[in-house]
């Protein structure tokens, strides 16, 4: 009597298999985009950093995460190295804090002034 047609109608049928896939598609698309733009490159950077840190050897010039530049004096073990900053005593540093290994500097050519 007072019920409108919109409220009186029953909800749609139970054939929502294709509807579920259509609703799930944007989430899958977002995940695939995140994989290729964020997760995959981050894994590659981690592998490169791990290879760089494991290849550290004596007399390499390195930059720490704090921005200090020093020379490796001793490889203590798999987790630590000793670095000498300037004329000071060597400091033990955790390998994972090394952010960059710099090439050995070439001697400067004699300046002809």
TrEMBL record:
SMART domains: YajC (SM01323). Coiled coil: none annotated. GO terms for biological process: protein transport. GO terms for cellular component: plasma membrane. It is a single-pass membrane protein. The chain crosses the membrane at residues 20-39. The keyword Protein transport applies. Signal peptide: none annotated. Keywords: Cell membrane, Membrane, Protein transport, Translocation, Transmembrane, Transmembrane helix, Transport. It is found in: Cell membrane. The SecYEG-SecDF-YajC-YidC holo-translocon (HTL) protein secretase/insertase is a supercomplex required for protein secretion, insertion of proteins into membranes, and assembly of membrane protein complexes. While the SecYEG complex is essential for assembly of a number of proteins and complexes, the SecDF-YajC-YidC subcomplex facilitates these functions. Part of the SecDF-YidC-YajC translocase complex. The SecDF-YidC-YajC translocase forms a supercomplex with SecYEG, called the holo-translocon (HTL). Belongs to the YajC family. This is Sec translocon accessory complex subunit YajC. It comes from Acuticoccus sediminis. The lineage of its organism: Bacteria, Pseudomonadati, Pseudomonadota, Alphaproteobacteria, Hyphomicrobiales. The gene is yajC.
